[in-house]
Structure formats: C-alpha cells, structure tokens
Amino acid sequence: MRALAKGRRTTLQGAVTPRPLFFCLLLVATPLAARPVPLVQLTADPIPLTQVQLKRGAIDVRVSLGFDKAMVLNLAPAQALGLKPFPILGKFKFKNPQIPGGEAIIRGNLVTGDVGGTGSQKLPTVWIDKDVVPPPQDGVVSVMAFDAERVVIRNPSGTPGGRAFVLQRAGRNDSDIKWKLGGDTVRVTLDFTSQHTILNARAAAILEREGLVRRLGTVGLWSPVPALSLPVEKLSPSAGADMMGLPLQQPFARISREQARALDARAAAGIEGDTPDDEDAIVVTAKTKEKQGRAPWMLIGRDVLRHCSSVVLDRQAATWTLTCAFPA
Fold first, then answer.
1. Do 169 and 144 belong to one domain?
2. Are 197 and 303 in contact (CB under 8 A)?
3. pLDDT digits over 298-327, tens only?
4. Based on the domain organization, do 168 and 134 belong to the same domain?
C-alpha cells in the first residue's frame, strides 16, 4: 500500500523501480485547485473516515495519514462507479509482498471528486483487483487529498490535554517525516489503522544499533490489508526511548517467515501472503549485500496515537502536531 500510493512499482522482492509513467502523467496533469478551505475536522474512532463525492455517486473511505495525495479503491466500487483507466498506460501488474498473493492488477486515472466537502478536484486514483480495505468502506484516501489548510483529527478515546509534539514533514505536499538517526534517515508515517508501531528490518536494525530497542523473540502478525498476515517480532523500548519526542510504546519489527518459524512455529503458522525475498524483512549484512533491502521506514500506530487527543495537519507549515498525554 505504501509503495503503491506513492506511485512506485516494486518487484516481488520489493526493490523500488521508477514510478509508472502513467502516474507521472496523472500528477503532472493535476490542475491547480481553488483556494483551500480553512479547516476540515475528522474523528478517529478508531480510524478517521470521510466521504468522496464522484460523478456517479458517493463512496465511504478511510483516511490514511501515510501516503501523498491519491485515492486507492477496491475493485467492486470502482466498477460500480464506471471508472475507466487512463488509456494504454493506466493498467499494469504490480508486485509487492504487502499484497495478498504477491501481485495485483492495478488500474488508474485522474478522477474528478470532492473529498470531504472541500471542493471538486482532479484526484489521482487507482483501483486494485484485491481488496485494500474491508467493508463497509470502499477504499482509502490520503489526508493530503483534502483541499484544506488544516486537517484536525480528534480522537475521542485520547486523554484530554497533555503536551504538543510538533513534527516537521518532509515537505508541504508530503505526509511522511524524515527522522535522522545516527547518520541514517528513517521515513516515519502516522497510521491509525495499525494497532502497533511497525518497523521494517532496516529501521529496526538502526534503532537496535542506537540502543533504543531490543528484540524479545516474540512473534506476532501484522495485517496491513485484508487477507494478508505478515510476521513481526516484538521489540522492547529502552527506558526513555522516543521518536522525535514521541515515546516508543509497543513497536514490532518485520521479520521473514523463516525467522518467525525459528522463533515460534505455532505463531508462524498464521502467516499469509509473504514471500521468502520480502525486502522489508531483510537486514543488509555482508552476506545479504546483493539484497539491498527496502529503505528504512517506520509507521506509528495506535499504541502511540491512542494517547493523543488530536492530530493536526498544517499544510502551510508542513507539520504534524500531536497533542498527547502519555502515562508516566
């Protein structure tokens, strides 16, 4: 989902290649929007939702904080709405370990829609022959697709008050955060859909090297999309460990099926959809230098975000502001 929504194509092993040409055309062709609305307010209970009005009807979608301006739909609602792919370039096969079965057929185009009542715009949209979200939602739209100066996400279960954490985004039109750590850069995103904080293998290795976490040998399963369960290993944060001020709570690291079986064969039996060469599970060593692994990434899940009463996107300032009250 992350690589797809960013407009990048990966091989089955996960190596990133240039984004498909049609996606470049979609992004270049997107016209300048009218003046944005001042404010959009959403509720995360536990996941923020909104409605997108298209020409042939409205669809209910999840709101993702983890990718740039785009919308990703399940196949059935896209067909029901009569969406057509961009001629010639708007259909291709996408291979990625984070897709059930390892690959899917992707179709895409610029679609005219109104995201959350912020006005009509041309929105880069793709639809996939594998469900990306479970019913009753039809897909997922980026928080960056709201034509608004600020988006405020209220969390009714969060503790009121607390401290404001201001995190600089990579750029005005970027949703992610660049975390500089010991000479490396970890791309960080916020994710209300994930129960826990998840790191790929390279990011986990960096945090281990910096003394922020240690491995516990406990295997769990992470399901980024329906019908997909990927193996992860529980990490224990060191005392006072944080990500740019945000305390680490219950992080997990991506591991391979073989690593999971070695740690806990019973837990590994529940794995669905991963591949032996999933580069999110590869740590680069002398023995694996021919497999570069995916660039370090980390998503902050509800283990952290449930302590936050609000999460605010400020487009002009290129920041996320989280107001959180963490237990002592």
1. no
2. yes
3. 999 999 999 999 999 999 999 999 999 998
4. no
Q: What is the pLDDT of residues 213-245, one digit of tens each?
A: 999 999 999 988 877 888 999 999 999 999 999
CB 300 within 8 A of CB 252: no
Residue 33 above 80 pLDDT?
no
Total domains, the chain? 2
Q: HSE-up of 295 (CA within 13 Å, CB side)?
A: 12
Amino acid at 158: G
Instruction: List the 319-324 sheet strands across, edge first.
Output: 37-43, 148-154, 308-314, 319-324, 163-168
220 within 8 A of 301, measured Cβ to Cβ: no
Whichever domain contains 202, its CATH number is: 2.40.70
Strand (E) or helix (H) holding 92: strand 91-95
**149 burial class (0-12, 13-18, 19+ CB within 10 angstroms)?**
middle
